[in-house]
UniProtKB/TrEMBL annotation:
GO terms for molecular function: GTP binding; GTPase activity; translation elongation factor activity. This is Elongation factor G, mitochondrial. The keyword Protein biosynthesis applies. It is found in: Mitochondrion. GO terms for biological process: mitochondrial translational elongation.
């Protein structure tokens, strides 16, 4: 079977002209056959490499024609999971419908995690697959399609789940609420779809709600998302009276009847109440298409009415070319118009062969042209690991196969490390259930057990050195200090390591100064979920607090010291005397240091071999100030004189004498506490300018610069880091989730007197508790 397929594949080669590596993309640095390339610098001629191009066989074309890979994305609570539940029910994948927050406490199929069902939100993206017999709008024929679906979260905190889903999908359904319309996370999802060039069809859900206005939402899509859009359906009835929709392409009335709307009834009679609106909106659909499709544009100029087939083909062309989004209407919770949406997915979204996919050849320079991959089953294997999950049987790796075929028991190569690994078990996912398969072809999504890799790694069959570009990973915006309740167990670090591996936006580090474990993520909900998962999945209960700010202490005036350290015990005792002063010091531009030890001892009163011990004692004393227990900066130590004993003096004695001298005169030097000041840049829509500036002023911020552009403005301010905690949630609240901010350390400045008093009191209290 395989040999005949390879014989069928017509092989030809094609030279690639030299081109620059696409901006914003990066590839892994592993080079399998780079030994000779490294020895000789490649010339212009050598960088032009010919690659075999595998033609798709008739079997490949037939299989890919009826294959769709789609994601369901939207703002929070727009009905993504409810819609996916209906899709699975109507395609026969599940026998019963369970609601997200249903009274039966079962929860939706795609929300498999206990936390998801409790909170009624999607936390992890979940993959499934189904078959659907679709009615083609162009011909009216019924054809069977295989659809891979990924349901994604709506919260911005879990944005990486949407990011990696859209990275591997060929098309998407953008769900919008008929009342709320385009919201903040809708804009974020739109940005992610554009980043990966994912065509989308829009579905205006919740048409049964009071105040539902799909025409306002369609205008918002055009204005806010900057994409041409038009309805391909109009509703029959409004709000509670929603009974069905009119298909403007096929010009049929579609009703849902039977138990849970599983029976679709089509009629050529358009109800009188919807007829005029349907004619008007069909004309609007043609006009919108005319702006993005030349064929329909010419017909409009010639005053010709396009046929059903011409209209359907134009919608498909414009959607795949990312110029247009057909808008479907319905209500998932009321089981209305979900089946026509599935028909639209099959009719208007691209096949895996219609999506251009490129990879970088790691044996070539970074500036070499990228290679286009062909979804041919006979081609060398190229697959991308886009999501990791800890399953019952070890690490579960979700893969998208772009080229070639992957079989159970086959050896595959890790493109980044070059490791050869065997595929022990190959499965297709249905939420948290698995179905074992023997092989998977190009354009498919599957999962593998027992492979150690990171999210975004590429796998090949070893015959090529291709590596695919990874996904965009946003930087964390919030941090918390994490501490286990009671003694720390191995499960604490095991849980943190696993979560870091699964989620690239979840970071963990140990603060060098406070020695606290700091976790960073995309929002407070994001971190709260991981803390809760540690308790449930690893039985590690943790307490969280805001991370300790890196305060500093410094002195403001000179103080002289004359300190003698004496300690007499049996035998040799300890004796050392140091004389000199400490004084404030500015940052040295050349060395970048603001602390200094100066030796001005003359006459050998302190033997030279004890001077390093004095210096060591000085730097040791700087580690912890006596005001708040924070490091001391901006201090110069000048040693003028001293005294040593021929028997009792030692390095230890001089080190202790130096520490004692600094502590004795520290208060006389008028010490103060410094706090880190951050340069904060906020970008938000112009209508929120006053709210943003007011919020920064409340946090004792100093506005440095402000710039207003057409739709948005940028504000730069200097704010103390201690006042920035909770700002991400605050900004999201005052800007409806549309504001973004970044912080950068600038300098340390004195804290307010009352803050200094609070820090001093807290430190004294902690010392008292330690002594007890």
């Amino acid at each position: 079977m395989l040999s005949s397929t390879i014989v069928q594949a017509c092989l030809r080669t094609r030279p690639h002209a030299r081109a620059s590596f696409a901006p914003g993309f990066w590839s892994f640095s592993h080079r399998r056959h780079a030994a000779t390339a490294a020895a000789v610098k490649p010339t212009e001629a050598e960088t032009v490499k010919e690659y075999p191009v595998f033609e798709l066989t008739d079997e490949d074309k037939r299989r890919l024609k009826f294959q769709r890979n789609i994601g369901v994305s939207a703002h929070i609570d727009s009905g993504k999971t409810t819609l996916t539940e209906r899709i699975l029910y109507y395609t026969g994948r599940i026998r019963e419908i369970h609601e997200v927050r249903g009274r039966d406490n079962v929860g939706a199929k795609m929300d498999s995690m206990e936390l998801e069902r409790e909170k009624g939100i999607t936390i992890q993206s979940a993959a499934t697959f189904c078959d659907w017999v679709a009615t083609m709008p162009a011909t009216g024929d019924k054809e069977k399609y295989a659809i891979n679906i990924i349901d994604t979260p709506g919260h911005v905190d879990f944005t990486i789940e949407v990011e990696r889903a859209l990275r591997v999908l060929d098309g998407a359904i953008l769900v919008l609420c008929a009342v709320a319309g385009v919201q903040s996370q809708t804009t974020t999802v739109d940005r992610q779809m554009r980043r990966y060039n994912v065509p989308r069809i829009s579905f205006i859900n919740k048409m049964d709600r009071p105040g539902a206005n799909p025409w306002r939402v369609i205008n918002q899509i055009r204005q806010k998302l900057k994409i041409a859009a038009a309805a391909v359906q109009v509703p029959i009835g409004v709000e509670d009276d929603l009974r069905g929709v009119v298909d403007l392409v096929r010009w049929k009335a579609i009703y849902n009847e039977g138990e849970k709307g599983n029976k679709v009834v089509e009629s050529d009679d358009i109800p009188a109440e919807a007829l005029e609106l349907a004619k008007e909106k069909r004309r609007e659909l043609i006009e919108q298409l005319a702006e993005v499709d030349d064929q329909i544009g010419e017909m409009l100029i010639m005053d010709e009415d396009p046929t059903t087939q011409q209209l359907a083909e134009a919608i498909r062309r414009a959607t795949i070319s990312l110029k247009f989004s057909p808008v479907f209407l319905g209500s998932a919770i009321k089981n209305t118009a979900v089946q026509p949406l599935l028909d639209g997915v099959c009719a208007y979204l691209p096949t895996p062969s219609e999506t251009k996919v490129v990879a970088h050849d790691t044996s070539m320079p970074a500036s070499a042209p990228q290679v286009e991959l062909q979804p041919a089953s006979a081609a060398p294997l190229v697959a991308l690991a886009f999501k990791l999950e800890e399953g019952r049987f070890g690490q579960l790796t979700y893969m998208r196969v772009y080229q070639g075929t992957m079989r159970k028991g086959q050896f595959i190569y890790h493109a980044r490390t070059g490791k050869k690994v065997k595929v022990p078990r190959l499965v297709r996912m249905h939420s948290n259930e698995m179905e074992d398969i023997q092989e998977i072809g190009p354009g498919e999504i599957c999962a593998i057990f027992g492979i150690d890799c990171a999210s975004g790694d590429t796998f090949t069959d070893g015959s090529t050195s291709f590596s695919m570009t990874s996904m965009f990973v946003p930087e964390p915006v919030i941090s918390l200090a994490l501490k286990p309740v009671g003694a720390e167990t191995p499960n604490f670090s095991r849980a943190l390591n696993r979560f870091q591996k699964e989620d690239p936006t979840f970071r963990v580090h140990i603060d060098k100064e406070s020695k606290e474990t700091i976790i960073s993520g995309m929002g407070e909900l994001h971190l709260e979920i991981y803390v809760e998962r540690m308790k449930r999945e690893y039985n590690v209960e943790c307490t969280t607090g805001k991370p300790r700010v890196a305060f500093r202490e410094t002195i403001t005036q000179r103080a002289d010291f004359f300190y003698t350290h004496k300690k007499q015990t049996g035998g040799a005792g300890q004796y050392a005397r140091v004389i000199g002063f400490i004084e404030p010091m500015a940052m040295n531009e050349e060395t970048g240091k603001d602390t200094e030890f100066v030796n001005q001892v003359m006459g050998g009163n302190i033997p030279s071999n004890y001077i390093p011990a004095v210096e060591k004692g000085f730097y040791e004393a700087l580690e912890k100030g006596s005001l708040s227990g924070n490091p001391i900066c901006g201090c110069r130590f000048v040693l003028n004189d001293g005294l040593a004993h021929s028997v009792d003096s030692s390095e230890l004695a001089f080190r202790l004498a130096t520490i004692g001298a600094i502590r004795e005169v520290y208060n006389a030097a008028k010490p103060i506490i410094l706090e880190p000041i951050m340069t904060v840049e906020v970008v938000a829509p112009s209508e929120f300018q006053s709210a943003v500036i007011g919020g920064l002023n409340q946090r004792r911020g100093t506005i440095v610069d402000s710039e207003v552009r057409e739709d948005e403005f940028t504000c730069i301010a200097e704010v103390a880091l201690n006042d920035m905690f909770g700002y991400s949630s605050h900004l999201r609240g005052i800007t409806q989730g549309k504001g973004e901010f970044s912080m950068e350390y600038k300098t340390h400045q004195p804290v307010l007197p009352q803050v200094q008093a609070e820090l001093e009191a807290a430190y004294k209290k902690s010392i008292g508790q330690t002594k007890k």
